[in-house]
């Protein structure tokens, strides 16, 4: 466990996070409850159809998407992992100076090669 | 019980309920959303234990990114939704594997920590300490990570392009 005093401040700082989280949940809950209580409820078949930009819905709810969209999810994961390493790097940056810059430069440079490859192969074009 | 222990019990209970719902959900998309609950609770348990960096990485990477990847993967499938199509009739084997994993984990954890109430000194500034060990002592493995990510990225590009041509 952490030492007593620092543990105290640690958990107190997370009490704020918890309070924000609770306020957010409460806000959404109250909004939904108020909508249910206040809004008139007169369902018609036409009202209950799935909204598809005002056009009659076609086919099933589940449709298979193209594999090319997977690459965007994958790119997001890869650069998310990269971004996570920036946090400890930022903490150590001042102490290490140029050494840290070079280390992170190599890391980001190698990933940039991957991004360049994806770009050159044309998978980044949204169609 | 201390406040920490109460927090742990609540988080563990919510996480367990999420995990049970995850494997019993009839809709695979709902299962992926229950995975969010379980992973977020695991991350919160790390936070309660004082492992701040690992906790937030868990939430950022697993809740934020891996679940996105799962949902993208589900969108690629023609998954029919329903219990029959999701159940592959291997419950006995699954139970056996689950029990083996549980036994292995219990053995390893009690071997490492013993049953006693052993207090450990954790580092205070975890993010800074992680940074120091990565950027001072483990620079080479850190750079190797970028090559693994690069390989994964190129693999994904190649697969996406090949699928498209077909």
Which whole number gives the mean pLDDT of chain A? Answer: 84
Q: Which segments of chain B are poorly predicted (pLDDT under 50) over 5 or more consecutive residues?
A: none
- As a percent range, the share of helical residues of chain B equals over 70%
Distance between the termini of chain A: 53 Å
User: Can you identify the CATH superfamily of chain B?
Assistant: NADH-ubiquinone/plastoquinone oxidoreductase chain 6, subunit NuoJ
Could you name the ranges of chain A where pLDDT drops below 50 across 5 or more consecutive residues? Answer: none
Give an overview of the whole structure.
The complex is a heterodimer of chains A (127) and B (166). With 127 residues, chain A is an all-alpha fold. Chain A is 70% helix and 0% strand. Chain A is built from four helices and no strands. Chain A has helices at 4-38, 45-48, 70-96, 98-120. In chain A, helix 3 packs antiparallel against helix 4. The model of chain A has no long low-confidence stretch (mean pLDDT 84). By secondary structure, chain B is an all-alpha fold. Chain B has a single domain, classed as Four Helix Bundle (Hemerythrin (Met), subunit A) (Up-down Bundle). In chain B, 81% of the residues lie in helices and 0% in strands. Chain B is built from seven helices and no strands. Chain B has helices at residues 3-24, 28-48, 52-76, 83-86, 91-113, 126-137, 139-165. In chain B, helix 1 runs antiparallel to helix 2 (28-48), helix 2 (28-48) runs antiparallel to helix 3 (52-76) and helix 6 packs across helix 7 (139-165). The N and C termini of chain B lie far apart (61 Å). The model of chain B has no long low-confidence stretch (mean pLDDT 84). The chains are: A mainly alpha (127), B mainly alpha (166). At the A-B interface, helix 1, helix 3 and helix 4 of A face helix 3, helix 6 and helix 7 of B.
